[in-house]
Design a protein that fits this description.
This protein is mainly β. The chain has one helix and seven strands. The chain is 13% helix and 40% strand. The protein has a four-stranded antiparallel sheet. The longest helix is centred in the middle third of the chain and has 14 residues, at 46-59.
Length: 106
Protein backbone atom coordinates (compact mmCIF):
# COMPACT_ATOMS: atom_id res chain seq x y z
CA UNK A 1 0.00 0.00 0.00
CA UNK A 2 1.51 3.30 -1.11
CA UNK A 3 -0.22 6.53 -0.04
CA UNK A 4 2.73 8.88 -0.51
CA UNK A 5 1.25 10.51 -3.62
CA UNK A 6 -2.34 10.18 -2.45
CA UNK A 7 -4.76 12.92 -1.54
CA UNK A 8 -8.36 13.17 -0.34
CA UNK A 9 -11.05 15.35 -1.86
CA UNK A 10 -14.73 15.88 -1.10
CA UNK A 11 -17.23 15.61 -3.95
CA UNK A 12 -21.03 15.53 -3.61
CA UNK A 13 -20.86 15.09 0.15
CA UNK A 14 -18.52 12.09 -0.08
CA UNK A 15 -14.79 11.79 0.66
CA UNK A 16 -12.61 10.08 -1.96
CA UNK A 17 -9.00 8.87 -1.81
CA UNK A 18 -7.14 9.46 -5.07
CA UNK A 19 -3.69 8.40 -6.35
CA UNK A 20 -3.13 5.73 -3.68
CA UNK A 21 -1.68 2.46 -4.93
CA UNK A 22 -3.18 -0.59 -3.24
CA UNK A 23 -1.61 -3.65 -4.81
CA UNK A 24 -3.57 -6.73 -5.79
CA UNK A 25 -3.60 -9.66 -3.38
CA UNK A 26 -1.40 -12.21 -5.17
CA UNK A 27 -2.59 -15.40 -3.38
CA UNK A 28 -6.14 -14.75 -4.61
CA UNK A 29 -5.20 -15.40 -8.24
CA UNK A 30 -5.67 -13.19 -11.27
CA UNK A 31 -9.46 -13.36 -11.61
CA UNK A 32 -11.55 -10.79 -9.83
CA UNK A 33 -8.66 -8.52 -8.83
CA UNK A 34 -9.23 -4.79 -8.36
CA UNK A 35 -7.50 -1.96 -10.20
CA UNK A 36 -4.61 -0.85 -7.92
CA UNK A 37 -4.91 2.91 -8.50
CA UNK A 38 -8.68 3.40 -8.63
CA UNK A 39 -10.45 6.02 -6.50
CA UNK A 40 -11.63 4.76 -3.12
CA UNK A 41 -14.60 6.08 -1.19
CA UNK A 42 -13.89 6.85 2.47
CA UNK A 43 -16.51 6.16 5.11
CA UNK A 44 -16.88 9.21 7.35
CA UNK A 45 -19.71 10.47 9.52
CA UNK A 46 -21.73 13.47 8.39
CA UNK A 47 -20.19 15.57 11.17
CA UNK A 48 -16.66 14.68 10.03
CA UNK A 49 -17.49 15.40 6.38
CA UNK A 50 -18.99 18.79 7.24
CA UNK A 51 -15.97 19.71 9.37
CA UNK A 52 -13.43 18.68 6.72
CA UNK A 53 -15.39 20.37 3.94
CA UNK A 54 -15.59 23.59 5.95
CA UNK A 55 -11.85 23.56 6.66
CA UNK A 56 -10.98 22.93 3.01
CA UNK A 57 -13.30 25.59 1.55
CA UNK A 58 -13.01 28.27 4.22
CA UNK A 59 -9.38 28.02 5.34
CA UNK A 60 -7.83 26.56 2.18
CA UNK A 61 -6.43 23.51 3.93
CA UNK A 62 -5.70 20.21 2.17
CA UNK A 63 -6.76 16.73 3.34
CA UNK A 64 -3.81 14.32 3.23
CA UNK A 65 -3.54 10.61 4.07
CA UNK A 66 -1.04 9.98 6.87
CA UNK A 67 -1.11 6.30 7.74
CA UNK A 68 -2.81 3.05 6.74
CA UNK A 69 -3.34 0.32 9.29
CA UNK A 70 -5.38 -2.87 9.46
CA UNK A 71 -7.67 -3.54 12.40
CA UNK A 72 -9.99 -6.56 12.57
CA UNK A 73 -9.36 -7.38 8.88
CA UNK A 74 -10.44 -3.88 7.79
CA UNK A 75 -8.02 -1.34 6.33
CA UNK A 76 -8.28 2.07 8.01
CA UNK A 77 -6.79 5.36 6.86
CA UNK A 78 -5.63 8.13 9.16
CA UNK A 79 -6.15 11.49 7.46
CA UNK A 80 -5.12 14.99 8.49
CA UNK A 81 -5.44 18.59 7.42
CA UNK A 82 -2.39 20.32 5.99
CA UNK A 83 -2.13 24.07 5.77
CA UNK A 84 -2.02 24.88 2.06
CA UNK A 85 0.24 22.55 0.13
CA UNK A 86 2.79 22.27 2.93
CA UNK A 87 2.65 18.66 4.10
CA UNK A 88 5.19 19.28 6.87
CA UNK A 89 2.63 20.92 9.16
CA UNK A 90 -0.34 18.62 9.56
CA UNK A 91 -3.30 19.40 11.80
CA UNK A 92 -5.20 16.34 13.04
CA UNK A 93 -8.72 16.79 14.42
CA UNK A 94 -9.01 15.32 17.90
CA UNK A 95 -11.28 12.34 18.46
CA UNK A 96 -13.49 13.95 21.12
CA UNK A 97 -14.28 17.37 19.66
CA UNK A 98 -13.77 18.44 16.09
CA UNK A 99 -12.94 22.16 16.64
CA UNK A 100 -10.02 21.34 18.95
CA UNK A 101 -6.86 20.68 16.95
CA UNK A 102 -3.51 19.08 17.61
CA UNK A 103 -0.49 19.86 15.49
CA UNK A 104 2.15 17.31 14.60
CA UNK A 105 5.30 17.73 12.59
CA UNK A 106 6.56 14.47 11.05
Amino acid sequence: INIAEGYVYIKSGEAWLENANIAAYAPAGERGQHEPTRSRKLLLSKKQLNYLSDQVHRDGQTIVPLKVYIKNRVAKLLIGLAKGNDKLTVVIPSRNAMPNERSIVP
